[in-house]
Amino acid sequence: FGLQHYMMQVDQFVGPGDYYHASYGRRYGKRLLIVSDENITDEVRKFDMYESVVSYPAPAEDRYAMASLDKLICDILMLVEPLYFVGTLSSQVSRLVLELRS
Length: 102
Fold this sequence. Notes:
By secondary structure, this protein is mainly α. The protein has four helices and two strands; from the N terminus they run αβαβαα. The chain has a two-stranded parallel ribbon.
């Protein structure tokens, strides 16, 4: 699935009852933390009704560095805190976040 699919799920929580086309130009005043394995900066710009913070994994050559582990732990701890979490069960990070939230 692409970001569009997940953002539709977020929209159902944030703006229940809003129709997709009726929400153009609306600002929800909500902050999103988006963590992805891919560069999705252009896709995130389409959802300007949210204040978005995007986090990407370290490049392959830096993946096993201590700084990369620190960043991953920080991302996980930040994902545990919000009221809502949208993730995929095929992701080990998402599974870990779900376990820490329960």
